[in-house]
Design brief:
This protein has one domain: Nucleoside Triphosphate Pyrophosphohydrolase, CATH 3.90.79.10. Strand 1 and strand 2 form a beta hairpin. Strands 1, 2, 3, 4, 5, 6, 7 and 8 form an eight-stranded mixed beta sheet that branches. It contains two helices and eight strands; from the N terminus they run E-E-E-E-H-E-E-E-E-H. It is mainly beta. The chain is globular and about 40 Å long.
Length: about 130
């Protein structure tokens, strides 16, 4: 079984969670809602990669966020590849009134309550990843 290491971060502002809609320019999961995610390169630290992805995808700098919680890595089957799993490193950050500047990887964003996540078509197991952080 092959696997890819991926960070998935959620940003919380008051009682809302930020989710992003993946654009049609990304390789996989086009049009699905997700957290802020990216591939962990080689021996890279997952928390460092999470902060880089947050800045790249939504323009929020490290000094604007506070890490609230991280969870144990999770293995999730990849629906698009045979014999492949994603090893997810989940993080929950907090911020206050950020300005969101999307890059090409995402086409939209929403601030939602945790209960509303079920109303969105998301990447596989997104709710499970989030619930491990709450």
């Amino acid at each position: 079984m092959r696997f890819t290491k991926i960070v998935t971060s959620f940003i919380k502002d008051s009682d809302k969670i930020l989710i992003l809609k993946r654009s049609d320019k990304v390789k996989s999961m086009k049009g699905l809602w997700a957290g802020i995610s990216g591939i962990v390169e080689d021996d890279e630290d997952a928390l460092t990669r999470a902060k880089i992805e947050i800045f790249e995808e939504v323009g929020i700098t490290e000094d604007e966020i506070t890490l609230i919680k991280s969870a144990e890595e999770m293995r999730i089957n990849s629906p698009q590849y045979k014999n492949h799993e994603w090893e997810i490193f989940p993080f929950l950050f907090e911020t206050e009134n950020p300005t969101i500047k999307l890059n090409w990887e995402n086409s939209d964003f929403q601030w939602i309550s945790v209960e509303e996540l079920g109303n969105y078509e998301t990447v596989p197991s997104l709710q499970k990843v989030l619930f491990n952080l709450l």
